[in-house]
Amino acid sequence: MEFAERVLELEPEGAYYMLARAQELEAEGRDIIHLEIGQPDTPTYANISKAGIHAIQEGFTRYTPSAGIKDLRGAIARYSSQRLGLDIKPANVVVGPGAKPALFFPTLALVQPGDEVIYPNPGFPTYEAMIQVAGGFPVPVPLSEEDDFSFDLAAFDRLLNERTRMVVLNSPSNPTGGVMPLSALEHIANAARERDIWVLSDEIYSRMVFDKPADSIYTLPGMAERTIICDGFSKTYSMTGWRLGYGIMPESLAGRVDLLLNHSIGCTASFTQAAGVEALEGPQDHVDAIMSEYRRRRDFLVSGLNQIPGLSCRTPQGAFYAFPNIISFGKPAHWLADYILDEAGVALLPGTSFGEYGEGYLRICFANSMENLEIALQRLSSALEKLK
Ligand code: PLP
Question: What is the pLDDT of residue 15?
């Protein structure tokens, strides 16, 4: 069977491959600690679940406008205006089932076949996929460990050319936990303004920061008219399975993205949207509590990793991932990740699940209990000792 060119290069997210391997071992009776999948280990907060259940019980179970219900677009506009210190209108907000549609659909609306799109590597695998499906040419820019995994700006400058249509940013970052400094965002914003380039800024981890808020390129002069923010509820509110996210973008682009949603997904589940209003407008103390818990886990994990001979790990500033350097072992990252799963029963991801420049690193998700993190560290230490 002949498939369309746009799907020929697609590959699944690496996390699914590792999860499947780990589950095979579990079926054979092995005890596995799961540090591969990037999702909170806490259930959705009770007030949010209740709002969703109440909406179903009240019969709020029908189609909604494709771009989202008025109440939710309003709540997102208010929340985002406050977060960014700007006046964002409901007309700038498009709701979708998860944050992924706010990556995919603006890309489909803006990128023409042959256009180049610069994206972070290592980076979230959907970036490369959406560029390919749009017929664009994916141009990876390496992240540099010395700069806390911010863009390698010299490489960025070299990669820019007259075909560059869009730049994808992700700060705080999956998989590195890095937060881009304001100076790097200003550098990229200057290039975007000069060359008339769009920026797609994936800020799904914007609430998950440890020391100070992450800056957003959207707030820099002249950037709101050429930036799309992708954000969502999955990580902050433990709502990965509800499927709820949104994009913030200029009104005219929002209209085009609305049409793409209208003809593909139709609309986001009505009761999920009702739960989203409660997430944003209800009590926020759970979010603060889980962030202090993640900080405790981060500090424990990073200090433990740095005590293992051969590993070195920077302290992530956001999200819930550690990205230790494994270069001293002289093994490919995918080999080491497989070895750690088989030998130690710890599932984690090779940096190369996030692109070629992820070689030399592993990604460890620390949204897991302190007990499991402690056992994982002990097992990792013994397994890696054998390679020395
Ligand atoms: N962007 C990044 C950087 C992510 O890590 C994820 C999920 O892992 C997403 C987007 C997608 O989020 P959602 O599950 O809400 O579609």
Answer: 85
